[in-house]
Specification:
The chain is an alpha/beta fold and about 325 residues long. Among the domains are: about 45 residues; about 180 residues, 2-enoyl-CoA Hydratase, Chain A, domain 1 (Alpha-Beta Complex). Helices cover about 45% and strands about 15% of the residues. Strands 1, 2, 3, 4, 5, 6, 7 and 8 form an eight-stranded mixed beta sheet that branches. The radius of gyration is 36 Å and the shape is flat. The chain starts with a helix and ends in a 13-residue tail after the last helix.
């Protein structure tokens, strides 16, 4: 008998659906929802771990040298290295704040047997060099038991030697270039060029010397004389620093303050250098701590990444306000 016949006879047709089917569907939906949440949670953990791993790799690449060299939990004595590389100036890697921070960290480390200023610099700002000299001498006095030597690589000129003079001793390679103890200021004059082009120079100042050494105007004897006075004053400061740092080591046979530069062997003869050798020579034979640990502060992670994508381009838009320096 079919259903129609049953309905016709007034009989109730039983549903083919199982009893409590609504509850079963709800339970299945809840179970699937829980499974989906668990899958999402696992994927979330996976991507978090992946992101953490990526960040760790970037961090290692950015700070790898410093991280590998830091003496975490070590008790072995080491020789501390602080690099002074390139021009010494604000905005450069070799600026006073960075150098002094490295020297301070090196002295404060209890496993430091001795500190080496590893210098490879053409010089730079007399102010930055002077700040480093003063702080190195102060820190050396605070840690009299820890020697500090300067080791010259390829070049140690002007501001670089200004800093080296703060060391207990100075080492150099026989072919290193050392010296250039002097001060310079340079520029160009375009007066003849302006005349040939028919360009009229117009400058309005408040103060007779506000256009001091203007490159588009003829040199004035009083301005040149004033500039020579400035240079002579800074040069004398430089000489006093070298005399203070080197003392009787300087040879009286050679005028080491004339701005010339010498090889390491020649510098040894005239007293600008104490020994021929390298950082390994000092670490192994003087400090008896052959292991080298570099305490030079590294650039921050963010600056290293942004430099890689062209932020350094922006810094090139800023002109130097002064060309006065004690660089070679």
């Amino acid at each position: 008998m079919n259903n129609d016949q049953r309905w016709a006879r007034g009989e109730r047709v039983r549903s083919e659906r199982p009893p409590n089917w609504e509850r079963s569907v709800i339970e299945k939906l809840a179970t699937e929802s829980i499974k989906e949440q668990r899958r999402s949670r696992r994927w979330g953990i996976f991507f978090k771990l992946l992101g953490f791993g990526y960040f760790a790799v970037v961090l290692l690449l950015a700070f790898g040298k410093g991280l590998l060299n830091m003496p975490f939990g070590e008790t072995e004595k080491h020789t501390a290295i602080v690099d002074i590389s390139g021009p010494i100036a604000i905005g450069e890697a070799a600026n006073a704040d960075t150098i002094v921070a490295g020297v301070k960290a090196a002295f404060n480390d209890e496993n430091t047997a001795g500190v080496i200023l590893r210098i490879n610099s053409p010089g730079g700002s007399p102010v930055q060099s002077g700040r480093v000299f003063d702080e190195v001498r102060r820190l050396r006095a605070e840690h009299p038991e820890t020697p500090l030597y300067a080791v010259i690589e390829d070049l140690c000129a002007s501001g670089g030697y200004y800093i080296a003079a703060a060391a207990d001793k100075i080492y150099a390679d026989k072919a290193s270039l050392v010296g250039s103890i002097g001060v310079r200021s340079g520029g160009f004059g375009f007066v003849g060029t302006m005349d040939k082009l028919g360009v009229e120079r117009r400058v309005i100042t408040s103060g007779n010397n506000k256009a001091f050494l203007d490159p588009f105007s003829p040199l004035k004897e009083d301005e040149v004389a004033h500039m020579e006075t400035l240079l002579a004053d800074i040069h004398e400061q430089f000489r006093n620093v070298v005399r203070e740092g080197r003392g009787d080591a300087l040879s009286g046979d050679t005028d080491v303050f004339n701005g010339l530069i010498w090889t390491g062997e020649q510098a040894l003869e005239n007293g600008l250098v104490d020994e021929i050798g390298s950082e390994m020579t000092v670490a192994r034979e003087v400090f008896n701590a052959e292991k080298l640990v570099n305490f030079t502060p590294q650039d921050g992670l963010l600056s290293q990444i942004t430099d890689g994508v062209g932020v350094s381009f922006a810094s090139g838009l800023f002109d130097r306000l002064s060309n006065l320096n004690i660089g070679h």
